[in-house]
Amino acid sequence: MKSGIRGIILVSVGMIAGAVIGAVTAEPVANKKTTLPLSEIRQFTDIYGAVKQFYVEPVSDKKLMKEAISGMLHGLDPHSAFLDEESFKELQEGTMGEFGGLGIEVTSDPAGVKVVSPIDDTPAANANVRAGDVIYKIDGKLIRDVPLNDAVKMMRGKPNTQIDLSILRKGEKAPLNIKLTRAIIKVKSVKFKALPDHMGYVRISQFQERTNSELAKAINELAKTDNLKNGLVLDLRNDPGGLLNAAVGVSAVFLPKGVKVVSTKGQVEEAKKDYLTVPADYRTTKEDDLIERLPPAIKNIPLVVLVNGASASASEIVAGALQDHKRAAILGTKTFGKGSVQTVIPLRGDAKNMAIKLTTARYFTPTGRSIQAKGIVPDVEVKDTAEGNFLDFDIREADLANHLEVEDTSAPKPVPVDAGKQKSAGQIKEKVVDEKGEEKKPAPKFYKYGEPDDYQLQQAVKYLKEKPNGTKPAKNSRIKERIEPINQPKK
């Protein structure tokens, strides 16, 4: 077998308190002749020897080497990491969508760890843990100086055991104390439902091995009930990413066969590739062939994609591809900006149950735009609520220490939908003032995605009903006629 970077590529933004989303198979990087930096190696061995001889208490060689490796990778960028046996095992479980923990994706923060995204229907989401929350204590212990991996391990644990999180939240005068019960997290990647006026709604919470087949089945079910005739809302809000294959497959559902979804560019040849809407680039299970069997009219249904600041990696790949190909209107707020590729490389010998997660390339949209530290800017900006942003998620990839610098590109940028004509929805409102003449801002009501009081979803439906220029969507016989579902073999 040819040596090189192989396997499934990571596109998740951070660490999950319960598992790390990622790939499980990869080979060592292709052999490349390098000159050993003898001076630096000598310096390392001198420091190693000094620690062994003079540290306040004996330290094992195993611990020293593990910490040295962890530090080396952590210093590269926010997403490269050393995976010990426990982390590697949980990574493998995470790609299947089942793991133990709380169900929150987190990243580093000076005060502790910051929540990137609570995963739907998990202990964290059910306890109203929000994107942007900063966890500064776990079971009463300050974690400001605790490495991210160690903080994540503290949040993991056996199901049905309790954990106390102390949280700082923007807009709250005092810290919040939230008690959670750990559980086996079974993440349902795809949810769907019918909307009024023959429209459909599909939410993807994570990109997993079965996301492509689950999406195809959801589309088929909506087609059975004639709920795709007037459009579909694809919800990628708070979706932290997952597997690249799944992102390509989701894009393939809505784009013509053979077009580019995303490109990767890295140091070695194996890291330079264009991913197209073809089965070879997205198939992970046998059921993924359902994508090719979807009715052709799916490629033309009116489509709105919802994103926000916690939409990252795979979510940004899908949003960027649909935006570049002018296939969908992207609605919401600017995405996270995680545009780098991580490959999981298992170690050999005595460390065969361990691995490293290494950043090996950058992502680029079909027109050549870099996602890294830039994110995807929506065509139509819509805040979380009519009163403004509710989640207050104010951290992006560009805010993380050691993030990869943005690579400039001269590629053309897609033209926003009716640029300059469409006002940001929900932003033109009469101010309400108190007796002192100061503006009163009512506290927005907490809501769950896809529910009737989901303001951004309301605006997406409105967009499908009435285009930005005030006219109805253009008539198209392929869209207006009933979309027949695919024929599934009898069980």
Give an overview of the whole structure.
The protein is of the alpha+beta class and 491 residues long. The chain has two domains: 85 residues, Pdz3 Domain (Roll), CATH 2.30.42; 271 residues, 2-enoyl-CoA Hydratase, Chain A, domain 1 (Alpha-Beta Complex). Helices cover 22% and strands 21% of the residues. It has eleven helices and 21 strands. Helix 6 runs parallel beside helix 7 and helix 7 packs parallel to helix 9. The longest helix is centred in the first third of the chain and has 17 residues. The two termini are 38 Å apart.
Radius of gyration: 23 Å
CATH architecture title of the largest domain: Alpha-Beta Complex
Oligomer: single chain
Number of strands: 21
Q: How does the helix and strand content classify structurally?
A: alpha+beta
Main pleated-sheet profile = 7 strands, antiparallel
Which residues form runs of ≥5 with pLDDT under 50? 1-29, 410-434, 468-483, 487-491
Query: Counting H and I runs of at least 4 residues, what is the number of helices?
Result: 11
CATH topology of the largest domain: 2-enoyl-CoA Hydratase, Chain A, domain 1
| Percent range of helical residues | 10-25%
β-sheet strand percentage: 15-25%
Tell me the name of the CATH class of the largest domain.
Alpha Beta
Domain module tally: 2
Distance between the termini: 38 Å
Say which CATH homologous superfamily of the largest domain is assigned.
Answer: 2-enoyl-CoA Hydratase, Chain A, domain 1
- Large-scale geometry: globular
The whole-number mean of residue pLDDT values reads 80
